[in-house]
């Protein structure tokens, strides 16, 4: 994996922070001009505006030749939402217990994000005499032959190649740009726990912001506070709801993967892996064969759930 210098890392963090501020300020325009509209109307408009701003931000970055960091964007988004909570939402009769719980959830998210950034997803070593990592594999004409040889040697061990990291990962599920790391056998549980943490924290924020909305008459045409902070409180609420819209199905998908002992990469690219191909030849002399998907690692839903609970417990 490519190592960034300190100056490049600081520059990417600054660009990511600016993108977060631009995105959140743009989302605050929706409640600013549509304060009398319901949440059901503001949500799709906020989603459309979010896509437009992210698209324009990406195009501007390419024109200027600057780079951002997805993990830094996630971190500053968490920090921004937390600042809005402290400055605005907490004033709206949020109980002391709920306040402590939400602040604790944010702290755990930040710790979990830092942990998964530097976690080992399950990098595989190669070479008996040289204890080198796969991510340092040579480039050029021999790299393709080397990759094929390594793929054959790892056959049946569930070691997959990540093109983003240029590394071989045991139990590779996917490369997660938001966390800046591969999700593999060694950090998959941490990834699932962190995903659950995001859902719980965003749900808590929406619950707290609902009290704020009730107090100031938001979404019913009687909004008594039209300051920038109030608009940011509404926009961060819609932002959290939009995150929940995709994170909950994403968590459901990973629950399915856990139950059936399958990885996302294996499900998408099963034709690349011979162990997932079942050849059906009805008659001995028949040349036409049917290749179908089969999961050789599936040992039953109950057993897989027990294994996952044993690992997490």
Automatic annotation (TrEMBL):
State the similarity comment: Belongs to the DHHC palmitoyltransferase family.
Q: Where does it reside?
A: Endomembrane system
| Protein's name in the database | S-acyltransferase
Its EC number(s): 2.3.1.225
Task: Provide the Gene Ontology terms for cellular component.
Answer: endoplasmic reticulum; Golgi apparatus
Q: A single Gene Ontology molecular function, please?
A: protein-cysteine S-palmitoyltransferase activity
Identify the gene encoding this protein.
Answer: LOC107411114
Domain remark text: The DHHC domain is required for palmitoyltransferase activity.
Record-annotated Palmitoyltransferase DHHC domain positions: 157-271
Q: What is its main location?
A: membrane
């Amino acid at each position: 994996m490519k190592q960034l210098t300190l100056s490049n890392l600081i520059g990417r963090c600054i660009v990511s922070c600016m993108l977060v501020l631009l995105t959140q300020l743009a989302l605050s325009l929706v409640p600013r001009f549509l304060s009398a509209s319901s949440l059901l109307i503001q949500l799709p408009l906020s989603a459309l505006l979010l896509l437009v701003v992210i698209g324009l931000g990406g195009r501007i970055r390419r024109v200027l030749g600057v780079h951002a960091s997805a993990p830094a964007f996630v971190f500053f988004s968490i920090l921004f939402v937390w600042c809005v909570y402290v400055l605005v939402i907490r004033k709206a009769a949020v109980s002391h217990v709920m306040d402590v719980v939400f602040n604790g959830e944010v702290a755990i998210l930040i710790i979990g994000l830092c942990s998964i950034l530097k976690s080992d997803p399950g990098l595989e070593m190669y070479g008996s005499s040289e204890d080198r990592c796969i991510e340092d594999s040579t480039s050029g004409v021999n790299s393709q032959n080397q990759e094929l040889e390594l793929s054959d040697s790892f056959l049946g061990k569930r070691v997959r190649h990540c093109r983003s990291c240029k590394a071989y990962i045991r139990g590779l599920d996917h490369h997660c740009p938001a966390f800046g790391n591969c999700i593999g056998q060694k950090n998959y549980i941490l990834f699932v726990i962190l995903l659950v943490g995001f859902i719980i924290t965003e749900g808590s924020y929406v619950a707290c912001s609902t009290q704020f909305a009730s107090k100031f008459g938001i979404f019913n045409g009687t909004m008594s506070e039209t300051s920038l902070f109030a608009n940011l409180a509404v926009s961060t609420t819609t932002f959290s709801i939009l995150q929940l819209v995709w994170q909950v199905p994403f968590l459901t998908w990973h629950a399915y993967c856990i139950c059936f002992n399958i990885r996302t990469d294996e499900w998408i690219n099963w034709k690349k892996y011979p162990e997932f191909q079942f050849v059906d030849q009805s008659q001995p002399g028949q040349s036409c064969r049917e290749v179908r998907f089969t999961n050789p690692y599936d040992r039953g839903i109950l057993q897989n759930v027990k294994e996952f609970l044993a690992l997490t417990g």
